[in-house]
Write a structure and sequence with these properties.
There is one protein chain. The protein contains ten helices and seven strands. The protein is mainly α. The strands form three sheets. Strands 1-5-4 form a three-stranded antiparallel sheet, with no helix packed on it. The relative contact order is 0.09. Residues 139-279 form the Palmitoyltransferase DHHC domain.
Length: 330
């Protein structure tokens, strides 16, 4: 053995002794890759926890927005705007107040039913049904580690799988699924009506007591200009609150109108939001069957009075595929 080989052998032995690794054996590449893959999957699964609290804060913000806006609209309408606009006739005034109260009651009632009935749409380990030959298209949820029926999706915020999940509603703080979709549709409808009514009466009041919006003084409705005039003492602070209510009414009208239009599209196509975006027509149903699945037997009455005792047709677990419906039709 030469001097160079002896030095190299000594360095190798020293390195093996200090590191505890046997360099004479080939490295276990598969074990290393498995470890890296497991670490990647773990980080991928736990990464939503970093921003989950922000989304949960949006649940709180949505509830606060709904509570403050709906109560403010009702109080301002009953005690300020409606008496001034329709005060010339007590019968007309009472009719307008009853209409506003009815819209508010329908809005709050359907909101409560959205939250309460969302628990029925949750599919957990205690409600699991093992798939059989008649229950195809069941898949395994990697988060819940259970088998879930078709059209059920996992919600990161609710941390549970939801039957026929459509989306997570931040205003209600829960998911819209099989058992509460009808209440969400009615809620959006009365949200539009209430916001439109509040927008109209608030603007009529401001047009008389402040300035018309469609005039050369339209900039008077800009919030920085309002705050500056209030600072100078040229307007009362109540004008700022009424203009702010006008903004909130317009925002609510646009938001509820958008969600209502989207839900009507889903109602006519017989799909969920996920299925429509992915162009998945596997479980697409005809309009008549979809109405019964969403609203139950008495579809239109749900828009006049809530019918929580009328159940949807089906259980949210078994769904007919489009092929079976076409075969049945022919």
């Amino acid at each position: 053995m030469t001097h160079r080989e002896a030095v190299s052998s000594h360095k190798t032995a020293s390195l093996e002794t200090s590191s505890g690794i046997d360099w004479s054996k080939p490295p276990d590449v598969d074990a290393y890759l498995d470890k890296e893959n497991a670490q990647y999957l773990l980080e991928k699964r736990t990464s939503p926890q970093k921003w989950l609290w922000k989304l949960r804060m949006m649940n709180t913000a949505g509830f606060v927005y709904f509570s403050v806006y709906s109560l403010s609209s009702l109080i301002v309408g009953h005690f300020i705007t409606l008496p001034y606009i329709y005060g010339y006739d007590k019968d007309v005034l009472w009719n307008r107040k009853i209409l506003a109260a009815y819209i508010f009651i329908m809005l709050v009632t359907n909101y409560i039913l959205i939250v309460l009935r969302s628990k029925r749409s949750r599919f957990g380990i205690f409600s699991q049904m093992l798939p059989s030959a008649n229950q195809a298209h069941w898949t395994k949820c990697p988060n819940c580690d259970i088998l879930v029926p078709p059209r059920a999706k996992h919600c990161v915020l609710c941390d549970v799988c939801v039957l026929k999940r459509d989306h997570h509603c931040f205003f209600a703080g829960c998911c819209i699924g099989f058992h509460n979709q009808r209440y969400f549709i009615v809620f959006c409808l009365y949200g539009c009506l209430g916001a439109m009514y509040s927008l109209y009466v608030t603007y009529c009041f401001l047009e008389i007591h402040y300035t018309p919006l469609f005039s050369l003084d339209f900039y008077g409705y800009l919030m920085p200009w309002l705050l500056w005039r209030w600072y100078l003492g040229t307007i009362h602070h109540s004008v700022i609150w009424l203009v702010l209510l006008l903004y909130l009414s317009l925002t609510t009208l646009l938001a509820c109108g958008y969600f209502l239009a989207w839900q009507l599209v889903l109602l006519f196509t017989g799909q969920t939001t996920y299925e429509l975006l992915k162009r998945n027509k596997t479980f697409k149903q005809p309009l008549a069957e979809n109405l019964k699945s969403v609203f139950g037997k008495w579809s239109l009455i749900n828009f006049i009075i809530p019918l929580p005792w009328i159940r949807n047709e089906g259980d949210g677990r078994k769904w007919k595929t489009r092929c079976s419906l076409e075969e049945k039709h022919f």
